[in-house]
Specification:
4 copies of one chain form a homotetramer.
Chain A lengths: L3 H5 L2 H15 L13 H4 L7 E6 L4 E5 L5 E2 L4 H13 L20 H5 L10 H15 L3 H12 L5 E2 L1 H8 L3 H12 L7 H12 L1 E3 L1 H7 L18 H14 L5 H7 L4 E3 L4 E6 L3 E6 L10 H14 L5
Antiparallel strand pairs in A: 1-2, 1-8, 3-5, 4-5, 6-7, 7-8
Helix pairs in contact in A: 2-14, 4-6, 4-7, 6-10, 7-11, 8-10, 9-10, 12-13
């Protein structure tokens, strides 16, 4: 990493970088397509953009709409998987892998080939495993997840956006197909409709960049939560980061590692979460998506940030 | 990364770690299968094991057979690609991608689907692109590659092992199939037999862990060669590391990122090269392979080393 | 076709052929596996075997257990598709194709690749289209189908076996996955649970070889029903035969055309229906299945019959 | 089959049908694309059209350019396979299958999946098996094939068009890829360059509809050649017909069975051969191809002929 890093920790410098990044990627805000398969998401204002950095120690720096809640969608997969891994331990890897997929996030191709074992926890099928495991452990997936997100961010208003959940429930045939396929291979223990319901609700949580970044700090604190208790071992926290780097950005994981060099996970609500080991967590949001489902302005902002700071794992 | 790192740079500590790692993985040496599709490789003594670390500044620490030359095979893909990227610049990404493949290293499935553009430079097909580009630029691939490896390692005896090359030439139908498929899509400029010849010769180079680690230091020196001249920009050096992490370990890239957390590339000769950003390059060798073609004892040694030192990008 | 055919129409000769065939394939009866994914089917006596020929004019010749009802399973796909084609006309080909599949009968691979359009009406997915179309036209699929089968066979006791339907309902995740995938592409108009219910019930109809052969005579009568009214045009009746020949025997369609040379459709209950243009319809039944899901003794009997009579379309 | 057939054998009637068919499909002549990947084929006059029927007894009826030689291309696969089957007997089925392929004629996807065993003899890969077997038996594939075609048609001028062979030799990377892949699995016994040479030459034979139809009469004569000697058993002749019906028309085999109902094989030179069991062999030619590589006017003419005569196997 570059010289610039050493004095970057000074808050003033970070604020300046955020300001510069925002200005630089301004022309990209509003570009791309809104997620159109969920009506509630296609009604969002495409001109929104927010970027937040939560440092390891808990400071938050932000710019733009970084305090505005949005639909977290697949960002939920990171937190839900962490909770499932905490609950199940190593045995969860018998139900989900940690290899990249060359197919889209909702594809059934690989899933049939692999007899119902999803390639990784960040595909829809993989997230259904996390949900199913949480349900078996806690009776619910969305409840312990919401509780965790509230505790880590300190924001007790975090909740499911009912209109988004309704909208997704009316358009969930693809996920229902994935869930039934996994059930046919014995890789879901709870009834498919219940698993789908929890999955839909966790996707429909609304949070701001500010809160999402705070809530993911356990990934840069060796598995330790905000209150100092341990969620995961250091090694397991690293493993989530490794899996995010290899699998987190749909079929653009390699391109993102190449351009940005940070473990990351994106959601079709336009959010992207990126982990900077030992430093902090970035969360960016802008609703316009590229063809792979990643935020156009969000990915560009992370790339600009990485270039400006030299923060990259490589 | 952990506390332990700060005082690890002391040579004595590193030597101790290498010693401990060697002892720890001793039971795995000799396990796995020798590469059996190349007769010359299946005659190797499976009990051999070597591990070397070349630091950014050029010190080399090693243990076991780390000074014994072996067939570098696919490790050549890293150096050849770096030279091709240096020669071609960004345009090389029109001929080869940087995404993981879910298929084996010599599969034609993805290649036909992607119209002759290999998924990444570390598959056989991707390496044929590097060879073809070097031939177009320099009239040969193996000559500039050998010259580079000799200069970076300071060992002017590095050369092609003729018996291995002969053996591979007699069993190259699979690679010939890949090359002709790419040629049918216009993704090779030189005659297929010449490209295959250069490819086979570069795989048949023999080098020690010591020399391989030294020769890859440009990846931890921001693209700068041993003599201080620049081969690649800092960003391009990082991009090679990113691509290795996502794609370098055949269909086990995710598992390796998960277990070891370092950019790496393996070869069926039993060698594995691993990059520790800002610190140095590891090269391990032991001929027994797992089902994906990665050295059993080699991967275990890198995992043990990573655990002992806390060196990991995550 | 061979000389033997001209005098074979004599009833005595046909009875002799049936007797010889039965004796010849005796050692195969009981071989193979019972369908084990539906508990109600795995409880059937594997030693049963029946073979019936219904001539164009309506005579029935039979041997063995040809009057014993069994679970018709996928044989229902032929009749349901014929009714759906009669109802919809040519437009049904916008929802289902007529090409062979190289994948198993319940695979999702091709279906995702083809955006929810099944390759042919004799795969599970294709049969879900027939069911959905009949529901849109008649409010139900199983009711008009049962009515048709009763009318054509003259047997008014034909009905759904409730225990089989219950058993399938409890193990229908795979078909639910197919149905939801098709629904996600807009290729089902009715609610998935209702479509599945009708599909399961039509598979759970029980009929004898005698009745199944009689009920398929419209395929050798140019689309004309038992009562002389027209169900389909001559061309459409031929097209169903053509589609059966190319697609009717799961992934063994080519092998069956090769060995037997007749349009045919099999079911995992152990039944196989085969059409001899201009002559009649054969129905054979024996529960033991080969790895593709076709009756071992049934296919052998059809091959022996074809060799003995020279009846083949080639 | 329909009434009309009984009096159709009268030569006058057949000539009238050919005349009507020619007039009916006139607007389609010239439509479609010429095969553009072989320069020598793309220079052909697209307005040409010929149709011939050779009856079982050896009469030939024809219309249009039915006596003009054209490049037979993949039609050669039928004759070459028949000779290979005659030479090898049943053992040839260990090297090639008889199932349809859902992939294009020159795809490597299925071939890798099936470990070098082509799905059927009418794909390029399958034809390479025929060539290899003939070379092992006779030292050459194209020589015994040319001899056979001359003997069956009575035309001793049939020969390889050198300019077409040269053109194909310069564009054979795709077939070279197929051949090397098969060689890598041990499914070719002769050197790949020699196999390719023979394959290319047999594709570059030029023949007229008249001669092609005559030369295929063994398929409607139970395997018996023009001179009364036996090439194949009756069952093997039927099996070739069955395999043509299931696999002969590239990825449109089902559609062709559906529309025309006859075993057939097409070539990218614009020829289509169709077998009417017990009656005769049709050969049609018009160079414009549809997207699957089948002659647009040729397929339409066969459909019109089948409708007019009722000749269909279903």
């Amino acid at each position: 990493m570059r010289e610039v890093m050493s004095h970057l920790d000074a808050a003033a410098d970070l604020e300046q970088v955020l300001y510069d990044v925002h200005r630089e990627i301004q022309p990209l805000i509003g570009q791309g397509q809104l997620a159109d398969y969920i009506p509630a998401l296609s009604a969002v204002d495409p001109q929104q953009f927010g970027l937040a950095l939560a440092t390891t120690s808990g400071e938050v720096h932000g710019i733009g709409d970084y305090q505005l809640p949005f639909s977290i969608q697949s960002l939920s997969k990171v937190y839900a998987f962490a909770l499932a891994l905490a609950a199940d331990g190593e045995t969860i890897w018998e139900r989900v892998g940690h290899e990249a997929s060359t197919h889209p996030f909702n594809s059934l191709l690989q899933l049939e080939h692999d007899h119902g074992i999803p390639r990784n926890p960040f595909l829809n099928a993989g997230a259904l495993v996390s949900v199913d495991r949480l349900m078996s452990r806690h009776g619910s997936a969305v409840q312990p997840l919401r509780e965790f997100l509230r505790a880590e961010s300190g924001n007790h208003n975090i909740d499911v956006e009912k209109s988004v959940a309704e909208s997704e429930r009316a358009h969930c045939d693809r996920n229902a197909s994935l869930a039934h396929l996994m059930a046919s291979y014995g890789n879901l223990d709870n009834p498919v409709p219940n698993v789908l319901d929890n999955y839909i609700e966790q996707c429909a949580l609304t949070m701001s960049c500010h809160d999402l970044a705070l809530a993911a700090r356990f990934l840069v604190r060796g598995g330790v939560r905000a209150d100092g208790t341990r969620l995961l071992s250091t090694d397991n926290a690293k493993r989530i980061n490794a899996t995010m780097l290899v699998c987190g950005m749909y079929d653009q994981a390699g391109a993102f590692a190449f351009r940005v060099g940070l473990p990351a996970k994106s959601g079709v609500g336009g959010g992207v979460l990126a982990v900077v080991p030992n430093r902090g967590v970035l969360c960016v949001w802008s609703p316009g998506l590229d063809r792979s489902g990643n935020s156009v302005a969000g990915v560009a902002a992370l790339e600009a940030f990485s270039l400006a700071t030299g923060w990259s794992v490589f």
